[in-house]
Amino acid sequence: METLTGDQRDKKWQCRWAAQHDQDALLALFKSAFGRPMPDGLWQWKYAWQSKPGMLAYTDDGIIAYYGGMPRTFCLNNKAIKAVQICDVMVAPQMRGILTRRGPFMQTADTFLSEQAGTDKPFRFAFGFPSHRHAKLGEKTGWYTRSDTFLETIWPAKRVRPYLSAWFKTRPLSPHDSATVNALWHIMRSTLPDCLIPRKDAAFFNWRYYRHPSHTYTTYVVSRRWKSKPVGIFTLRDHGAGSDMELMDLLGPPDILPILLSTALRITKAAGRKRLFSWMTPAVLQQLPAPETAQEISGVYVTPDYKRKIEEQRLHWWLMCGDTDFH
After folding, report:
1. Which InterPro entries match (predicted)?
2. What is the distance between the alpha carbons of residues 41 and 47, in angstroms, rounded to a whole number?
């Protein structure tokens, strides 16, 4: 860590909402903060459609901190809830020594959360999957608190159920399948009571998987062979020869999810991959056959007032890899 000079400590800085014209400066901050450039197009994919993509702190010399968020809509017992997913939390390396409550890093977070998340705010709650360091800092400052666990689950491809192919057929999802996606989303949200489910309609699948600038995904529709009626959808990301297949998303009623997993395993094996892995919360895993391994990979954190609601009403998070911004 660089040592701060007296001039740097005393330099005036201010907070304001980021705007589209800040993109190049924020990409430069990302590179200096994380030691690597953000992939081409990813910033636009996350933020181009927002009027307030994040809170930044700046001096006369440039931007020194940023606290970003992506709007997400959740469904709880068929009611829509607006939320914001925290992402791209970063501070210039030379400013990392200033972690006081009134420092630029703290103030970007405080201002963003106090203005955007809570009762009668644009978003009912903020949530995210922070690093261990940021999670500890967030709990210490009261920004957010742990609410659930992300598990990394692994199924060996050899666990394929071959007889399923006699009863079900699979095809890639096409851009003309919006009605199918929306119908399955309607069924899924109606059959998972007391679960906080991110919206998984056709607009989401189009944005998250078809329009992602960095990764290639394939989404499949599973139908009953004799009726040709779609029963579920799943999305895979192939990490290439010598690597594994990743299960990004599942869409359908709970009783169909094991069939979707088995179909994903069949595709994994046919592609020459030995394992299918995923990230998911326990609520998702409970609906699936037991994996070979399941270990904690991250926490799910939420603003404290909404965690109290989750605990009081005994709600469950329904999250998978596709609900992160980095898979």
Report:
1. Acyl_CoA_acyltransferase
2. 10
Q: How far is CA 266 from CA 156, 236, 327, in A?
A: 10, 12, 22
CATH number of the domain that residue 25 is part of: 3.40.630.30
* Shared domain check, 294 and 179: yes
Q: Note the pTM of the prediction, 2 decimals.
A: 0.92
Q: What is the pLDDT of residues 19-35, one digit of tens each?
A: 999 999 999 999 999 99
What is the per-residue pLDDT across 63-114, written as a single tens digit (0 to 9) for each? 999 999 999 999 999 999 999 999 999 999 887 655 556 678 889 999 999 9
pLDDT of residue 100: 56
CA distance 151 to 296: 4
- Name the residue type at position 151: L
For 92, the token pair is 């210039």
User: Are 209 and 219 in contact, with CB atoms under 8 Å apart?
Assistant: yes
Output DSSP code: residue 320. B
User: Can you tell me the distance from the alpha carbon of 90 to that of 26, in angstroms, rounded to the nearest whole number?
Assistant: 10
Domain extent, residue 289, equals: 151-299
- What SS3 class is residue 120? coil
Q: How far apart are CA 183 and CA 159, in angstroms?
A: 30
Cα angle 201, 79, 252 (rounded to 5 degrees) comes to 40
31 found inside a domain: yes
Dihedral of the alpha carbons of 297, 303, 308, 309, in degrees to the nearest 10: -100
